[in-house]
Amino acid sequence: MMLFALTITGLAFTGCSDDEDEAVQQSQTNSLVGKWRQTNSSGTVITLTFNSNRTGNCHYKFPNGNTETEKFEYQYIPIDLYLRVIGDCQLEGDYDVTITATKLRLGFYDYEYGASNYYEFTRVQ
Predict the structure, then answer these.
(1) Which pLDDT score, from 0 to 100, does residue 108 have?
(2) Which of its termini does the chain have fewer beta carbons within 10 Å around, N or C?
(3) Is 45 helix (H, G, I), strand (E, B) or coil?
(4) Whose CA is closest to 51, among 72, 68, 37?
(5) How many angstroms separate the CA atoms of 47 and 38, rounded?
(6) Closest CA relative to residue 119, chosen from 69, 86, 87, 83
(7) pLDDT tens profile 79-120
(8) What pLDDT shows up at residue 29?
(9) Which residues contact 36 (CB under 8 A, 6 or more apart)?
């Protein structure tokens, strides 16, 4: 009887470990940290990099071949899906965040047009 109880306990621990591994893998897959890219309607390739130390940069490659890089800091609250980009850059502001394994959507209110809008990026790394 004692052997049976130990075997069941061992199985229960194995099950929890698998669940934890899956949760960690999913959180890493859906992490903001990494590189994200989009090409805007003007043909400019924009690459966002979010580092784990809450710094990042926004790299622009313009159709004429010129490039520009802006640095920023950020605050990200995963529970609230809220991102604040801080710094003298075009991305500065507050965003509602949606992240999947391959997509990053930064939602915001566009005061110029009086409507909600978003930027969408594809994961590069």
Answers:
(1) 94
(2) N
(3) strand
(4) 72
(5) 7
(6) 83
(7) 999 999 999 899 999 999 999 999 999 999 988 888 899 999
(8) 54
(9) 47, 48, 49, 50, 104, 121, 122, 123, 124
